[in-house]
Design a protein that fits this description.
Largest sheet: 6 strands, mixed
Structural class: alpha+beta
Strand order of the largest sheet: 5-6-7-8-12-11
Radius of gyration: 31 Å
Number of helices: 17
Helix content: 40-55%
Distance between the termini: 29 Å
C-alpha cells in the first residue's frame, strides 16, 4: 500500500482501518509529519517492523512498515538531504528485493531528484520497488513509460532516472484531483501487478498493488500453551495444598532444599494443570482497541469484502460502495472513540486503573529483532541471533577477581539474624503484581497471589532450609533474558540491553533479605544522606531539587559552584562480586546471609528468549 498521510497522528484510526481492510505486507508512507518524540507504538500497528525518517522541521517525513512475518532490515541507501528510506526484504525461499519510499515536496529544487538518481543507482544491482509522493503532475505515464507535458528540469531529471534504470511506473489513475502524484516504480517489469487506487486517509487516494513472488506471507508456527487464569479454580488448588502440607512437613525433616523445591514445584504445577484450563496460543484472539464494538468489527469485515470485490472487478460501482462503507466506518470509529474517552474521563475521578491500563497498552513497542550483523555476517535465524546476543551480554560482565586479602576492622554492630514467618511470607505473596510474567520455573504470579495462604507454609520450610544451608534451588539461579533495543542500529548487539526474568519465589526471599539489610544499614547510618538512588522516599527528582537548592544558595551568597557529572558504563553489570561480598562483611551483615548471597551469585545461568 502507498499512502499519503498529511499527519498520521491525527488519522491513527483511519490508518488502522485502511491497513486492516487491505492487509498489506509492505506500507509506503509519505507526509507522516512525525517527530522523534512520538513512539512507533502510538501510531502504527504492532505487527509491523517500523522504519522511519522524520523531518527535523514541520511537515514531511516518510516511513516503511514491513509485516513482522517478513525478514526485513534497513539499507544504507538514503541521503541526509532526501526524504527517503530503504529496506531489504528476504522471503522464505531466500530470495530478496529492496523497497524504498520517497517524498518530494512541491517546492523542492532539482538537487532532490539528482540525489534520488544517486540512490537509485546504488539500488539498481538488485530487484527493487520504489514508491511515494513525487509531486510531478506534468509527467504522463503511458504503457509504464514516462513523457513530459512540460520540459522542466525536474521533469527531465525524473524521466532520466526512469530511462537510465529501465523503470516501469504502474499508477495510471489520478491520486489527487486530476493529477498522478503518487507513483510506483520497479526495475523488474513482471514483478508488480494488479494496481488499484482506493480511498486514502488524506486528500490523496491510496494505491494498492500486488507483487509476484513464489512465497506467501509466512504464518508463525511458534505456539505455546496459554493458561486461562481468570477461569482457574483456585479454591481447589488451595484445598489440595492444605491437605498435602502434613506430608510435605514430614519430608522436610530429611530432605535438602533441592528436593523440597522439586516436590513443591511439581505438586503446584500438577494442580495448575488440573484446575486451570488452557488453550494453544494460536487460538488467542488479537487484542482489539477498547472502543471497537461488535458493530464496528462487522462493518470492518464489510469494508474488507468490499475492497476484495473492487480489487477483483475494478468497477466504478464497487469503488463507490467501498467509499460509502469506508466513510461509514470512519464515522462510527470516531463516535465510538469519543464515547470511550468520555467514559475514561469520568472514571478518572473514582478509579484511574482503566486510564493507566490504556496508557500502558499504548506505550508498549513490539519486541522483535529482524536480523543482526556479527563479524560482517548477517544472521537471521532466531537461535543464532539468541546465541550472539547471549554471548554479548555475558561479555560485558566483569571477569572474576579476588579481594580476599583486604584487611578491615568493623566497628559496626552485628546485623540481627534473619527470621521468616508464615504470615510475613503470605503478606508478600498477596502483594505480588499478578500482571507480571512468570519466571523460568513457570509458576504464575496469579496462582501465588490467589493461593497465598496455602502456599506460604511450604515456602517457609523451603526458605528456612535455604538460608540455613546457603543452598539455592537451581531454578532460582536461572534467568530468561529479553533483549530490549536502546537506540542506534538494530543490527548491532551492543545496542540492546538485557531484561532478566527470574523466579518470582526467589524474589520473595530476596525482598526479605533486602528489607532487613537496609534496616541494618539505616540503623547504623551506613548510607550517606547525599544518597538518593535506591532509597525509600528518594529519587532523581529529590536529588535534582536538592541540587537546584544548592545552586540557588550559591548564587545568593555569591559563591562559585563547580559541578562534576559522572556516568558509569554498564555499572550494574560490572560490579565485582568479590568486592561486594567484602563490603557486606565490613558492614557486619549476618554471616548466614552473606553465605547465602555468595551462593546466589555463583553458578548462575541465563538464556536469551526471542519470539517465544
Amino acid at each position: 500500500v502507498i499512502v499519503n498521510c498529511r499527519s498520521i497522528v491525527s488519522k491513527v484510526d483511519k490508518f488502522a482501518g485502511l491497513v486492516e481492510s487491505v492487509k498489506a505486507d509492505i506500507i509506503f508512507g509519505t507526509e507522516s509529519w512525525l517527530r522523534p518524540d512520538i513512539a512507533d507504538s502510538e501510531v502504527f500497528p504492532k505487527d509491523y517492523s517500523v522504519y522511519r525518517k522524520d523531518r527535523t522541521r514541520l511537515g514531511g517525513g516518510v516511513f516503511l512498515l514491513i509485516h513482522s512475518s517478513l525478514n526485513s532490515s534497513l539499507l544504507d541507501l538514503g541521503h541526509v538531504d532526501v526524504e527517503s528510506i530503504w529496506c531489504k526484504i528476504t522471503l522464505a525461499d531466500s530470495s530478496s528485493f529492496a523497497a524504498g519510499v520517497f517524498y518530494r515536496p512541491p517546492d523542492s529544487n532539482l538537487n532532490t531528484l539528482q540525489l534520488l538518481h544517486e540512490i537509485v543507482s546504488e539500488a539498481s544491482g538488485q530487484t527493487f520497488v520504489l514508491a511515494g509522493d513525487f509531486n510531478l503532475p506534468e509527467l504522463m505515464w503511458q504503457n509504464e513509460m514516462c513523457q513530459c507535458k512540460v520540459n522542466s528540469r525536474a521533469n527531465l531529471e525524473m524521466k532520466s532516472i526512469v530511462d537510465t534504470f529501465g523503470l516501469s511506473q504502474y499508477v495510471k489513475e489520478p491520486t489527487r484531483n486530476d493529477n498522478i502524484l503518487d507513483l510506483l516504480f520497479c526495475n523488474s517489469p513482471s514483478f508488480v501487478n494488479s494496481v488499484v487506487t482506493i480511498p486514502g486517509i488524506s486528500d490523496h487516494h491510496a494505491i494498492v498493488a500486488s507483487i509476484r513472488t513464489k512465497t506467501k506471507r509466512q504464518k508463525s508456527n511458534a505456539s505455546r500453551r496459554v493458561f486461562l487464569f481468570e477461569k482457574g479454580d483456585y479454591s481447589n488448588i488451595s484445598k489440595a495444598l492444605r491437605d498435602h502440607l502434613p506430608v510435605f512437613e514430614c519430608l522436610a525433616e530429611d530432605s535438602d532444599v533441592h528436593k523440597l523445591w522439586s516436590l513443591f514445584k511439581s505438586k503446584l504445577l500438577d494442580l495448575i494443570e488440573k484446575c486451570i484450563p488452557s488453550i494453544d496460543s494460536t487460538r488467542l484472539k488479537k487484542r482489539k482497541k477498547p472502543w471497537m464494538t461488535s458493530a464496528i468489527l462487522r462493518l470492518r469485515k464489510r469494508r474488507r469484502r468490499a475492497f476484495i470485490r473492487y480489487k477483483r472487478t475494478k468497477s466504478d460501482t464497487h469503488l463507490q460502495k467501498l467509499s460509502e462503507i469506508t466513510h461509514e466506518y470512519d464515522l462510527n470509529v470516531r463516535s465510538a472513540k469519543a464515547q470511550y474517552f468520555e467514559k475514561l474521563s469520568d472514571c478518572m475521578k473514582t478509579n484511574s486503573k482503566l486510564f493507566w491500563k490504556y496508557i500502558k497498552n499504548c506505550g508498549s513497542d513490539p519486541v522483535g529483532i529482524s536480523e543482526i550483523v556479527q563479524n560482517g555476517q548477517v544472521i537471521s535465524d532466531d537461535a543464532e541471533k539468541a546465541t550472539c546476543l547471549n554471548n554479548y551480554f555475558q561479555s560485558v560482565f566483569l571477569a572474576k577477581c579476588s579481594y580476599q586479602n583486604i584487611s578491615y576492622t568493623s566497628g559496626v554492630p552485628e546485623m540481627p539474624p534473619v527470621e521468616f514467618s508464615v504470615s510475613g511470607i503470605e503478606t508478600l505473596l498477596q502483594n505480588i503484581d499478578e500482571t507480571k510474567a512468570s519466571g523460568p520455573d513457570g509458576i504464575s504470579p496469579r496462582v501465588l497471589k490467589r493461593c497465598a495462604q496455602a502456599i506460604s507454609p511450604y515456602l517457609y520450610l523451603i526458605y528456612t532450609q535455604s538460608l540455613a544451608t546457603s543452598v539455592l534451588p537451581d531454578d532460582w539461579k536461572v534467568a530468561h533474558v529479553v533483549p530490549i533495543h536502546k537506540g542506534g542500529s538494530k543490527k548491532d548487539v551492543s545496542n540492546y540491553r538485557p531484561i532478566s526474568l527470574t523466579s518470582i519465589l526467589c524474589k520473595i526471599i530476596e525482598h526479605v533479605f533486602y528489607s532487613q539489610i537496609v534496616s541494618h544499614l539505616n540503623a547504623n547510618n551506613l548510607i550517606i544522606s547525599e544518597q538518593h538512588g535506591f532509597c525509600k522516599g528518594l529519587s532523581c527528582t529529590t536529588q535534582l531539587a536538592e541540587f537546584f537548592h544548592e545552586l540557588v544558595a550559591g548564587i545568593d551568597e555569591c559563591r562559585q559552584t563547580d559541578c562534576i557529572f559522572l556516568d558509569f558504563r554498564k555499572a550494574f553489570d560490572t560490579v565485582s562480586h568479590s568486592l561486594l561480598l567484602q563490603k557486606l562483611k565490613i558492614f557486619n551483615l549476618d554471616s548466614t546471609v552473606i553465605r547465602w548471597i555468595e551462593s546466589y551469585l555463583s553458578q548462575r545461568r541465563q538464556c536469551v528468549v526471542l519470539n517465544g
